[in-house]
Amino acid sequence: MHNLFRTLLPAITALFAFTAATAQSVNWKSSVEHLEGDAYRIILEASIPAPYHMYDMGPYEGGPNATTITFTPGEGVTLEGGVEQLSTPERHYDKTFEMEIGTFAGKARFAQKVKLTAAKAAVTAELEWMICDDTSCMPPEDTQMTVELTAQPGTAAAGNTAATVENGAADGKSGGVSATAAHDATVAPTQKDAAGNGTLWALIIEAILWGFAALLTPCVFPMVPMTVSFFMKSSGSPAMGRFRAGMYGFFIVALYTLPIAAIILITRIVGGDAVTADIFNWLATHWLPNVLFFLVFMVFAASFFGAFEITMPSWMVNKSDSKADSKGLAGIFFMALTLVLVSFSCTGPIVGSVLIKSTAGEFWSPIVTMLAFSVAFALPFTIFAFFPSVLKKLPKSGGWLNSVKVVLGFIEVALGMKFLSVADQTYHWGLLDREIYLAVWIVTFSLLGLYLLGKIKFAHDSDMPYLGVGRLALAIITFSFVVYLIPGMWGAPLKGLSGYLPPLHTQDFVVGQGGPAATAGEDARMLLTVDGKKPKHSDFLHLPHGLEGFFDLKEAEAYAAKVGKPLFIDFTGHGCVNCREMEARVWSDPQVLDILRNDYVIVALYSDDKKVLPENEWVTTDSGKVLKSLGKINSYFALKTFGVNAQPYYVLQGRNGKTLVPPRGYDLNVDGFVKFLKSGVEAYDAQK
Question: Among the residues of 463-520, which ranges form H helices?
Fold first, then answer.
């Protein structure tokens, strides 16, 4: 037990260090006061951690970063006057800046008066600030808050239900005003889940299914008898047996989850969000890990087909297995370690697939998905440890397990292509166009169908005297999938697989176009900038569905100002599965396409493109790091401006770079996306 505590001590220490690091942040709260009639006052309060201080609103030309607060009213509310500082700053002469400055310590309160002309309305507050202590300063931070207002009963605005803001709700307190009074915004360099809760839940469900499926793999299933045998030999009371079984499951989960959590925590503590995001961005988009993962999947596939066996080094397995004979928790821990090591050859590709799908710059997604996988994987073994007699009811390992292994081999070939495709798109190699990718999948799943029917046999397969109903059902599903894929060779969108396939513009031929599918992207090259030139990067970047647009923010902003339209900023990526799915299932809607084509200027900012820009376009971060590639510059802009590293993320921008409405992430609700776009146009028109 003592040795186990020493093993876990570094992780526990890292967790406390991380908690202490996140404590050095400003916590913002909002509330609303009713003044009289339709007049209200929005109050923002900042809690500043000791020993830091925050600068007042200045302004300070050539001085420190003053606190700035910009309110943007929604429909049904107007601003009255400017932002007030309710707290009195401590003023002193600063020798470094050679000027008098004001600072806040502990608390700082700001206010904005508004007039409500609707029953409900919302106001967006954009905040930027910097905190310092006596020796150093934290980098400038920013966040966005949405304050909801509900008119007090009896006022003129309360009777105006026509302009009620959707989803507003009174909090039931005196005065009838709801302003997200309990709205806390703990602000450090935080990451927002741009992918949305639905995406994280989808990853969790997929991880759970993979965790249960791993039990049927040939290198995991034989561990079931070993587990039962180990716990059948255990002595002690029933309560002690249940405790030992529970600890067995806990150790399995910990051995899968803690390593990835430790990596993320250490990188977060050492370098903050930017370092963590860079690591996972590199892992998800750089050619080296993607090609390596592709090769690993192909090697595992060959192993599953019977070419050779993949096992962990025998000395490692034997050493951990010998420790499993010891008594107490140490023996249970090493039993769990033996299971994890022995099952590696089958769970390794599954774990890699789960992690890669969740590494889009998010902090929690890889940890949560790995936790979900390991819990599902450990659950059957924990149950067997609770009730060893259950083993007698399980089928014996044999030929059916080899069939499972072969089926997994075919799936490995198909899934491995995605990694090669990401590298191909990110670096513009042009090796794996859409029709080549589809051809590989069609052949792979056709062979899988023939195998299920018994028309193909591998070296370790048992004789199959007849075709079972289960195999027939799987064969029907497999061949149906092949039939679904075939029209894609001639340009069918295949929306159900849009996130996994290369973009349609990489296809050489599409029925009805009489030429390459890339011609759909020619429109983007016909659009001219303010200076009469083709948009930057339009020679290798394209928008879907023949939409015209830009790939450089400054060009897009200049053009939007010229034509008098709001800007639709699309933070996307070549390897972003959810981006492709949004484009195929939401952007393709005729109403969405009409609004995007006619009412907005579109700019797509790729966060993973490896194109190295000219030196005069390089960007230097606050930490002094020089960013040279298009993807890194766009990713830094997204993190710095909006606090996001995940894609897709959609921002509607109006005049002077102001955000029109709260940004939107991954959400397949078409009606919601239409409302989002229309609300941006309305907010833009209100700026005139």
Answer: 469-485
Joined together, the tokens standing for residue 54 give: 């925050």
Residue 624: partners with Cβ closer than 8 Å, 6 or more residues away: none
Look at the block and give the residue holding tokens 């002309």: 117
What is the C-alpha separation between 572 and 250, in angstroms, rounded?
Answer: 38
The Cα–Cα gap between 367 and 373 comes to 10
pTM score, whole prediction: 0.46
CA distance 427 to 575: 11
In angstroms, the CA 198 to CA 586 distance is: 15
Q: Which of 72-86, 187-201, 321-335, 499-513 has the lowest mean pLDDT?
A: 187-201
CB atoms within 10 A of CB 259: 12
Residue 145: count of CB within 10 angstroms of its CB? 22
Distance (Å, whole) CA 651 – CA 601: 12
Q: Position of tokens 């600030």?
A: 129
Q: How far is CA 19 from the centre of its chain?
A: 22
Q: What's the 3-state SS for 292-333? A: HHHHHHHHHHHHHCCCCCCCCCHHHHHHHHHHCCCCHHHHHH
The secondary structure of 573-641 as a DSSP string is -TT-HHHHHHIIIIITSHHHHHHHHHH-EEEEEESS--PBPPGGG-EE-TTSPEE-BHHHHHHHHHHHH
Which of 99-108, 220-229, 589-598, 635-644 is predicted most confidently? 589-598
Side chain identity at residue 68, one-letter code: T
Structure tokens at 492: 């069918």
Q: Are 220 and 252 in contact (CB under 8 A)?
A: no
**Amino acid at position 427, single letter:** Y
Tell me the per-residue pLDDT of 568-615, one tens digit each, with 9 for 90 and over. Answer: 999 988 877 678 888 888 998 899 999 999 999 999 999 888 888 999
Whether the CB-CB separation of 415 and 296 falls below 8 Å is answered with no
Radius of gyration of the CA atoms of the chain, in A: 29
Whole-number Å distance between alpha carbons of 76 and 163: 6
Say which residue the tokens 């490995």 belong to: 412
Which residue from 479, 526, 489 is spatially nearest to 510, judged by alpha carbons?
Answer: 489
Which tokens belong to 160? Answer: 């105006």
Domains of the chain plus CATH, in order, are 25-187 (2.60.40.1250), 197-397 (no CATH), 517-686 (3.40.30.10)
Name the DSSP class of 39. E
Distance between terminal CA atoms of the chain? Answer: 70
Helix axes 238-285, 287-304, angle to 10 degrees: 130
Q: Are 227 and 384 in contact (CB under 8 A)?
A: yes
